[in-house]
């Protein structure tokens, strides 16, 4: 579609939708907070792989339930199902995992290749890690280090680009009532830059603000079981603006970018 997205309008609408959905989704957010707190507690107490995996599944399910409620509140509709949204989310997570592992593997072996090429050290299985680390730090200010930094930047860009291009998956799945997954990929073609700028205000800013606040509060909570549980729950609560505004940006962009936008339900004007 030949559409020029209004960045400021998208951001304003996204935060307006976030405010509208905040209260209706509060019980589901509370459920997500509880499951996150339990999962963090289980990890710290070494509860075992099976229990950790079971709790991770519960956290995923709570997240899908919260996301479904948020989308329904924003779209003003009761379309979409838990299973279809779970299918879409899981598919996206697996795709991100595949791409992320590939990028991480490449970035893990790249320093060794650059060190060998630069002639700073001969690496083998018996090389002292301290020597490798010192050689790597010595290499960073050089052209070889610039290549590594550029590769890291490109890897981060690839993940962000992938995320932006798939921004509409959840909103479209709930709006259409069917699992969309990669069918929304063409809809965002040519709009990645404007969506990325808008995402700075709906995703990046709220996310890092939550991380910073959580890191500042972590020492106060300590490592007692109660503190660990509260820390996990608090982390989700602090991420609520990020989650709500992120959903809002997707819902705001959806009717503007979907091929048959006129047939989509208009964004509700009341909760």
Distance between the termini: 30 Å
Compute the number of strand runs.
0
What quaternary form is this? single chain
Radius of gyration: 22 Å
Specify the helix fraction band: over 70%
Low-confidence spans: pLDDT under 50, at least 5 residues?
A: 261-271
Described by the principal axes of the CA atoms, the overall outline is globular
What class would the helix/strand composition place it in?
A: mainly alpha
- Tally of distinct domains: 1
Q: How would a crystallographer describe the biggest sheet?
A: none
Query: What is the H/E order?
Result: HHHHHHHHHH
* Structure annotation, total helices: 10
Mean pLDDT figure: 90
DSSP strand content? under 5%
Can you tag this structure with a few keywords?
disordered C terminus; single chain; mainly alpha; 0% strand; 271 residues; 10 helices
Structural notes for this entry:
It is a single chain. Helix 2 (26-44) packs across helix 9 (225-238). The chain has one domain (7-263). Mean pLDDT is 90; it is low at 261-271. The radius of gyration is 22 Å and the shape is globular. It has helices at 7-22, 26-44, 49-75, 82-118, 129-139, 143-165, 169-176, 192-221, 225-238, 240-257. The protein contains 10 helices and no strands. It is mainly alpha-helical and 271 residues long.
